[in-house]
Design brief:
mainly alpha; six-stranded parallel β-sheet; 40 helices; 11 strands; elongated
Length: about 850
């Protein structure tokens, strides 16, 4: 690959033309004294400079001698480039784009379709469709240069209006040396051109920037003897051609194109190899994302960076501060005549006169996240809009008509299967920037209210989760973009808490906590905020912190919430005891079972007094209490509490709700510990609980990890070691990616894995796991946690099996000390020889709750 003056010489015509003053300098160098063949040589050079042909023979040798460049550097290898043949009529007014990047899949797909049509003698026509600036013309141009040898003539017509069509036809007729080209009657020239197309075969006619399909039909040939390739903003072109949508550039293509256009890399050298030496690659990624994969915007940015020699970071800051101004910047010498801003406005101007309702739909979309906008949000969220918008959104025929107008000029994309819309982010930027400030604020408030009204308040039923999931990206987008001028505080608070609640249910705890903290800050800045609202938020934040293993901060928030409730008149026993439930769970986690039991009994007593013994608000404290009793080895009471909780919950949510999974697990293990279920029945109940979680959540959650851990423990008890190991590895992986490894829950799962390794005879792996469990317990508690006896006992058994009696003796002393501190009676310790102590197989650890 040759390079001349820093430019790849395979793209010779684009750079030599200005250097050689319009194709005369090289020709003049051959204009005398070399014999009668000089005229042929000069014509060959002229065709090369116009990219019509590659010089051969003597012309090739003399050109290389005159320029002092080798044939390989000047022309490239024959295998690396395909150029138009000298015999092919070449009527293309544009040079090949030296910065053309990517689009390989699209070009190959287009070539395959057109080739198949030619072989099958079908209608030979395709239309490249997409919004302005997406690169339709450049793709067609690259196709023309790349596949010129497949056609007998390459013809290009500007088709945006009748005058340009006629002008292009006259130019082509002149290029083809048709006799009618000298006619003053333009209609005769057009007729002659149509006749030429009808009587010649296998040509390619590019119709660039088609706007009016009816007008275009007057210029098309009647015989099906060649290939038509259209470029158009219209989403569909009816039966005229097969429509192929030109997509946005991928992120990698965008970065490659941007850096090449800004002259920061050689666009023709291997891309990845050049990135290793560029410190601004991360900024290039951010800038490419901001441009949304729109080639015109990337070209505009690259051109600005090249001309001003500013850094990519400087341009990014300029774009973030003044996006509309930067979208207006355009080099007057650029191939594309308009800036991004002007290109988008041209499309908007086409829509505005005929369909104000379409502009309203587009404006709503401009204030939402650009992708996957639910049509249902627009058609059901109209109540806060004006009468014109309401009419369009509530009448299916008018709504479809509005979308048709927007689709015609590729201002949106519609996805029929998902019933969603997509809008390019630069269309959003341009449209919003063109609104007066007061109008922009009014639309922003309307859209914020639309999403808030659409987001369900009651999210306990998993039937609303798919709808919440559709609204989630738009709620988060609006929350990030909003300020005091674009939404009322009450509306912002409502959307913050509803979105946070949904994220918490889907165990996206970090995101949920961030939103809850924003809501709390908003409340604290509102003088008229009620203490009950503050207490509720504090409790929600405490729940999130507990589930993430941040126990100290969780306890602080529970205590603060409880203090606020105590200062209020006794009106709602459920709300008042919510922080007590959280504190009881914390006590359970820390192994302070007696304190936790006293607190649970107090909670149940207060709720039964206020609500009765069959109210659903008793179900969750009963479930929590059942788990506590299991851990305290009170299996009979655990089973009774679990059965009662399950009955209350099933009466409200039915038998298939994922909220039942935890209580099913508790019931299974407590019943098994009592001998009321055999191992197969226990495992079946655990599998049911897992199936409920997997079906509902659709993702791997911390609750699912806890269920997998307990099923693994059940498998260990029946010798199904291989299956147990698979389950435990999955549980540990989920836990690591949801809440991290520095939690009690991770320690419980690791203890189960250590027990498995011991039973499998993998003593080294078992010892490593047990030691890590003990380290976590000591790190997270005061080393008196009752559950520490499980890894201590397991490790003692391991040392006995290995004959390490001294190490085992020290561990047994720790167990005895731990038992005394927790007022529990343990079996007599025999020092030598040390017998194996029964290791607890079925643990019930790792679950979280919140009301």
């Amino acid at each position: 690959m040759g390079v001349l003056n820093g430019i790849n010489t395979q793209d010779r015509c684009y750079f030599f033309r200005p250097t050689f003053a319009g194709g005369t300098l090289v020709c003049q160098s051959f204009a005398g004294g070399t014999g009668g063949g000089d005229g042929c040589i000069a014509r060959s050079i002229q065709r090369w400079e116009r990219d019509r042909a590659v010089p051969q023979g003597q012309s090739r040798e003399l050109l290389c001698q005159a320029l002092h460049i080798s044939p390989e550097d000047l022309f490239g290898s024959r295998s690396s480039i395909r150029v138009p043949s000298a015999e092919i009529p070449w009527c293309v007014p544009y040079q090949r784009n030296p910065f053309f990047t990517g689009r390989e899949t699209l070009l190959n797909h287009l070539h395959t379709i057109l080739s198949r049509q030619r072989n099958a003698t079908l209608t030979r026509s395709c239309a490249l469709s997409g919004p302005g600036g997406i690169g339709k013309t450049q793709v067609a141009l690259e196709y023309a240069y790349r596949y010129a040898q497949d056609y007998t003539a390459m013809l290009w017509v500007g088709a945006e209006e009748q005058e340009t069509l006629i002008s292009s036809f006259i130019s082509i007729a002149t290029c083809l040396q048709l006799p009618a080209s000298q006619q003053s009657d333009q209609n005769k020239v057009v007729a002659a051109m149509k006749n030429w197309l009808d009587t010649h075969c296998d040509w390619l006619l590019v119709l660039d920037n088609v706007e009016d399909l009816e007008m275009l039909k007057e210029f098309l040939p009647t015989a099906n003897r060649g290939t038509l390739l259209l470029t158009t903003r219209r989403y569909t072109v009816g039966t005229l051609a097969l429509s192929i949508e030109v997509p946005q550039m991928s992120l990698e293509e965008s970065v490659h194109f941007l850096l090449g256009r800004a002259r920061r890399i050689n666009p023709h050298a291997p891309f990845n190899a050049q990135l290793d030496h560029r410190p601004d690659v991360a900024t290039a990624h951010l800038l490419a994302e901001a441009m949304g994969g729109l080639p015109l915007a990337l070209d505009q940015a690259g051109s600005y960076i090249e001309e001003t020699q500013c850094s990519l970071e400087d341009f990014l800051h300029l774009f973030q501060d003044s996006p509309l101004q930067m979208l207006r910047e355009r080099n007057v010498y650029a191939d594309h005549p308009f800036s991004v801003e002007r290109t988008i406005h041209l499309s908007l101007e086409k829509v505005r006169p005929g369909s104000p309702g379409a502009i309203d739909v587009l404006t709503i979309c401009s204030f939402l996240a650009p992708d996957a906008i639910p049509e249902r949000l627009l058609t059901e969220g109209f109540s806060c809009l004006g009468p014109t918008s309401q009419t369009v959104l509530t009448t299916p025929r008018k709504f479809n008509a509005a979308l048709k107008e927007l689709l015609t000029y590729s201002l949106i994309r519609r996805h029929g299967q998902t019933k969603t819309l997509t809008i390019h982010r630069l269309v959003q930027t341009t449209l919003k920037a063109g609104l007066e400030e007061s109008v922009r604020q009014r639309w922003a408030m309307h859209v914020f209210e639309m999403v808030n009204q659409a987001f369900p308040t009651d999210q306990t039923s998993m039937e609303v989760w798919p709808w919440c999931e559709q609204l989630l990206p738009h709620a988060l987008f609006l929350i990030r973009q909003s300020d005091e001028e674009t939404c009322a505080p009450a509306t912002r608070y409502a959307l913050l808490t509803k979105t946070a609640s949904y994220l918490a249910q889907r165990e996206q705890y970090a995101k949920a906590e961030t939103l809850y903290q924003q809501a709390l800050l908003l409340l604290e800045q509102t003088p008229e905020a009620l203490d009950v609202d503050v207490a509720t938020l504090l409790n929600d934040i405490a729940d999130i912190k507990r589930k993430q293993g941040n126990y100290a901060e969780a306890e602080m928030h529970y205590q603060r919430a409880s203090e606020l409730y105590q200062q209020m008149p006794p009106s709602d026993s459920v709300q008042a005891t919510r922080p007590l439930c959280g504190l009881a769970c914390l006590l359970t986690e820390f192994g302070r079972y007696e304190e936790a039991e006293q607190l649970f009994r107090r909670i149940l007593h207060e709720r039964e007094q206020a609500l009765g013994s069959e109210h659903i608000d008793l179900a969750l404290p009963l479930e929590m209490f059942a788990t506590l009793c299991f851990r305290a080895e009170k299996y009979s009471e655990s089973r009774e509490l679990a059965q009662r909780s399950l009955r209350l919950q099933e009466q409200v949510v039915g038998p298939d709700h994922p909220c039942l999974s935890t209580v099913l697990c508790t019931l299974a293990l407590s019943s098994c510990a009592q001998g009321r279920l055999n191992s197969q029945e226990t495992q079946a109940l655990l599998l049911r609980a897992i199936a409920l979680q997997e079906k509902a959540q659709g993702v791997e959650t911390a609750e699912l990890a806890a269920l997998l851990n307990n099923l693994a423990a059940a498998y260990i008890a029946t010798g199904r070691y291989s299956e147990a190991e698979t389950l435990l590895q999955r549980a540990l992986h989920i836990q690591e990616h949801t809440c991290g490894t520095e939690t009690f829950r991770f320690a419980f799962f690791l203890d189960t894995l250590a027990m498995l390794y011991f039973k499998m005879g993998k003593y080294s792996e078992a010892e490593t796991s047990y030691l890590r469990v003990l380290q976590l317990f000591e790190q997270l508690s005061d080393a008196t946690h009752p559950a520490m006896r499980y890894p201590l006992t397991g490790l003692a058994n391991l040392y006995v099996r290995q004959g390490k009696y001294q190490e085992a003796h020290e561990l047994l002393q720790r167990i005895a000390s731990l038992s005394e501190q927790n007022n529990k009676t343990e079996a007599t310790v025999v020092l030598s020889p040390l017998p194996a102590i029964d290791t607890k197989t079925l643990n019930l650890f790792g679950f979280t709750w919140s009301e």
